Amino acid sequence: MRQTTGLTSTYSSDEFGICSALYELGGMVVMHDASGCNSTYTTHDEPRWYDMDSMIFISAISEAEAIMGDDDKFINDLIETAEELHPKFIALVGAPIPYMIGTDLDAIARIVGERTGLPCFSFAANGMHDYTRGVSMAMERILREFAEEKNSPTRQFSQSVDNVLSESGTVEKVGADTDLQSKKISRITVNILGATPLDFSLNGSVDSMKKWVTAHGIKMGLCLSMGCTLEDIRKAGEAQVNLVISAGGLAAAKYLRKRFGTPYVVGVPIGEAFSEYLVEIVRTASRSDENIISYLQDYVLNEVKTCGKIKCCAIIGEAVYSASLAAAIAMEYGICTEVLCPLDVGQDLLRPEDHYVPEEDDLICLLKNYDAVFADPLYRPLLRGEKQEFYPLPHEAFSGRIYDSVNPNLIAKRLETVEVP
After folding, report:
1. What CA–CA distance (Å, rounded) separates 91 from 31?
2. What are the tens digits of pLDDT across the range 48-74?
3. I want to staple 407 with a disulfide (CB 3.0 to 4.6 A). Which of 67, 97, 341, 394 is the partner?
4. Beta partners for 391?
């Protein structure tokens, strides 16, 4: 019974993570599941549903179909719908029922792809894992399907006749004044990987990250997967560095590293000090062959000195965002902050002092050791200390849209200036 959640919510599932990652890309995404599961995703976990069209469907498999089998019906429905809506691709998403009855979604995808002439692929989701795994699978697969080689003819960009980029990184314009000839421009392009509303609510955080990138003279490339298109994905290999802002973006970064040799940095530009530090790490990575997990840099950890009334803080949530917030708190306040991560993201993204805590009972025991806790408001019932401070930090993948109106945007802002709801 240790795996039973009695006081809090549960995180969004892997199949919903896939839908969220593919939502804006113009494809037809079909969950092969019973009717009703689609509404759980659209009404609880997808804040874009009412303002942005997307082809998210469910097969509505019936009890009889699950027992007797009727793949032909599913295949015909897919083909008929694709012919009517003309999607750019078709993605079939697994769920508990096809997982239990052994539905061969790969074979169905091949059949549908051959008959429609569209890219068609499937995901082995089963509803038993959290959303980070689904986001990870979707982002890596969409890059495998659509990212093009750097020398592909469709990747050649037209260059202005009167502007030439010199080897020194300056813009030289024929007949221009000397001061214009010497104007420096950045040659760094950065991709942001791991952006979904499940981790970054529609509170302006993703837009703030894009502005943070360009404000430092760096060109914004792909933002996977908010505010991007398949054309952006085709150009993914052009960037000099990838910035991973959630656990869901790590597999995509590793894939681009293997295919194009692009280094990656892990971190979210939270707070003023940490965001300034992070941009320097991005610049360093663009000139390096090494992958850098920014919030693990030695000097950040070594310079932290406990001070003030709050001796030790805990942050409950997704690993990359939480560890970045912990680094921001350390750099601005000198307060030791540890991450308690309930999500199965692996040890790569957790610092030595952080904890993977998938069980509610273990989380309750650990929380007694902290003076202050940052977490989704639905975690508040787990606190037992009367003098513990609780700072609400809503997480869309955990509490849905309940706290959207009070979800703070912490990107590149000094933390003391952020209003805590």
Report:
1. 9
2. 998 999 999 999 998 888 888 889 999
3. 394
4. 374
